[in-house]
Specification:
The complex is a heterodimer of chains A (294) and B (229). Chain A is an alpha+beta fold. Helix content of chain A is 71%, strand content 9%. Chain A is built from 9 helices and 4 strands; from the N terminus they run ααβαβαβαβαααα. The longest helix of chain A has 42 residues, at 157-198. With 229 residues, chain B is of the alpha/beta class. Chain B has 2 domains: 1-80 and 156-229, 3-Layer(aba) Sandwich (Rossmann fold); 91-155, no CATH class. Classes of the chains: A alpha+beta (294), B alpha/beta (229).
Chain lengths: 294, 229
Amino acid sequence: MMKFNTLVYHFRQSLNGFKRSGIMAMATISTVAASLMILGAFLLFHGNLNLLLHNLQGQLKVNFYLRDGASEREISEFIQGLKQETVVRDFEIISKADALDLLRKDLGEDSVLLDNLSRNPLPNTITVTLHPTEEIRTFREKYSANPMIESSSSGKDWVEQILNLIHLAKVSGTFIVVFLGLASLFIISNTIRLTVFARRHEIEIMRLVGATNWFIRSPFLMEGVLQGIAGALIATLFLAFGYGLLQDRLLLFFPELKLLSSQADLIQLYLKLFFLGIALGLLGSLLSLRKFLV
Amino acid sequence: MIQMFQVSKVYSNQNKALDQINLHIDKGEFVFLVGPSGAGKTTLMRLIFRDEVPSSGSILIDGRNIERLSAGAIPYLRRSIGVVFQDFKLLQDKSAWENVAFALRVVEAPAHEIEIRTNQALDMMGLGHKKHHLPSELSGGEQQRVCIARALVNDPAILLTDEPTGNLDPELGYEIMKVLLDINSRGTTVLVATHDATLVNRLQRRVLHLRNGKIVKDSLRGTYHHDEI
């Protein structure tokens, strides 16, 4: 275990290294900041999409209308099938009689119209609520094929389109984030490599007087972490400020819009960015040192 | 303290720097390693602190076979060996004091101990008044002494010095040599690579003659003449 005064010494060394690498360190910090900012923006977007999804969930219902005379076995087989589906959140069976009662309630005074019916014309219904998915239509078509199903109905088509859009945003967002993460990693490792190169004389002397590899690595690792932290701080400040501004503007024009705004959620997101910055710095410097210090 | 058995070192350019060296140096000995440039003096020293590994043969330091040391154990071997380099290897942007303290920081000595021992080592080298000078503000002899102070500050069992008087005028060279003898008298095994015949002859210590990578002469109270052998 490294002693405290050694850690302090390394910390000072890494601050010096930071100063010495000047413009390169600035370049690294801005790249980390830019990557984390885009990542953070994506995470905010993602959080808001999830919120939207949550609000759309009421629309994620499919009604299956059963043919009269469907046997108990057919129904229970159908339900067994539903239980196997991961997209199914829950389902409800509404009998003919219940459906008629519901209709009667809905009609209120006009329900007298129903009194003249010789028989209940409403079908037995199974209402399925789905988890957010782009496959509402597929799901509906699959189960409508069952011979005991007379017909089916589901939420509006635009729900599916929005879900498709969300899916696309998630996939492309992940791609962008991974790409930017790799770019920052590359740039950090290059800065550290330059610092290592500039200090190769010192490193050689350290080795000759008996420094362990970890002793030699520590200041460089700290330098990488410091760069990561600086980048993360800048990114967080800009994001917090920018998101606050955007939120105000959007709510001005769309007052009914529900945006991600809980302090806890936002702080959690900014903490994620912060630790990601540290991880990028650490990993970047480890990568560059691996080649130099064997 | 230092034992070599059939040690050869061939560099990648097929240059045979050392050829079948057998050597035994006891604890507390003072040994000159002499020979013309390219005889293998520096290579022999670098093998001892495992800056190089032998192509064949084995080297024992204090009974330990060092070419089998794991990467993690090498720093600990080096802490028991002080090395004074021909080109000093001082950090140019650090003061004399920091350069010496550096060797103690590396072994994670406590701060107060670094303070005391660094000052002691510099005082012993007569550099107490110049401890805040940068290497560029010191003369060659002073830089040499900073380098010796750094090699000694860890109290090593073995001190290796490569041409410690190479860049110095004879009087200063003799001063450095007296310091080395003083260190030796405290029990440190000292190995001095040199081709300074005057000093070798003046001190009358054990002399190992190297030529073309072989030990051609090993004399207990030896002398050295450039034209011999």
